[in-house]
Amino acid sequence: MFDLKKNDMQNRVPPNQKVTTGFPVLHYGDVPHYEDLSQWDFRIFGLVEQEVTLTYEQMTALPTTQVTNDIHCVTGWSKLDNLWEGIPVEEVVKLVKVKPEAKYVMLHAEHGWTANMPLEDFMRPGNLFAFKHNGEPLTPDHGYPLRFVVPHLYFWKSAKWVRGVEFLEKDKPGFWEKNGYHMYGNPWKEQRFAWD
Ligand SMILES: Nc1nc2c(c(=O)[nH]1)N[C@H]1C(S)=C(S)[C@@H](COP(=O)(O)O)O[C@H]1N2
Ligand SMILES: [Mo]
């Protein structure tokens, strides 16, 4: 008999990924801890007419939304049906005038950590700067106070502790991309490493 559930899973889980119900923690370096968020800011810069820096209050005053999506980590786990709450990417980009030559972005996180992607992928509807996961504020391990979520690429592009976005004309490798990971990272094509 046709197994609808199994078929649905196959369509949702990219090749060589295993579904997990837990929420593994993965990152390089130390988890940032914040006494308070008075020193926290978010910078929108690079190829924009005028760069903008937002305080935490200004950032969280932007319109918010909820989205549900599946995430796929390059190390082989996928987690389905994540409910995120945060600021849609377009609400953040609206605050600046992006120059026409901008074709890529670099996300900047605490400790100088970075992740690159094409502008088109960054702007994809459904992407967001999230402050909640499954109804709870992000824990420090998962990116408190704010992380980016870009579910159609491997999860390493979803910068935790994100502090800014830079608009670029040319693609540049971010942190993991400099360390052998793929420049784009499409899980459906298994673009895990630079040579894939
Ligand atoms: N700032 C920062 N963000 C990061 C990383 C990192 O090292 N630093 N690692 C990425 C990787 S490799 C993965 S798989 C996911 C893991 O997110 P999680 O710990 O919430 O599951 O965060 C991504 N975002
Ligand atoms: Mo990862």
Show the helix and strand layout.
Layout lengths: L3 H9 L5 E2 L21 E6 L5 E4 H5 L4 E8 L4 E12 H5 L10 E6 L4 E5 H4 L5 E6 L2 E2 L9 E3 L12 E7 L6 H4 L18
Parallel strand pairs: 1-5, 2-11
Antiparallel strand pairs: 2-3, 4-5, 5-8, 6-7, 6-11, 8-9, 8-10
Bound molecules: ligand MTE and molybdenum atom (MO).
Question: How would you summarize what this structure contains?
Answer:
Helices cover 14% and strands 31% of the residues. By secondary structure, it is an alpha+beta fold.
CATH level 3 topology? Sulfite Oxidase, Chain A, domain 2
Total domain units: 1
Main β-sheet description: 6 strands, mixed
Overall average residue pLDDT: 96
Helix-strand sequence: HEEEHEEHEEHEEEEH
Describe this structure in words.
With 196 residues, this protein is an alpha+beta fold. It is built from five helices and eleven strands; from the N terminus they run H-E-E-E-H-E-E-H-E-E-H-E-E-E-E-H. Strand 6 and strand 7 form a beta hairpin. It is globular. The N and C termini lie far apart (36 Å). The chain binds the ligand Nc1nc2c(c(=O)[nH]1)N[C@H]1C(S)=C(S)[C@@H](COP(=O)(O)O)O[C@H]1N2 and molybdenum atom (MO). The ligand Nc1nc2c(c(=O)[nH]1)N[C@H]1C(S)=C(S)[C@@H](COP(=O)(O)O)O[C@H]1N2 binds next to loops. The site of ligand MTE has 17 residues, from loops.
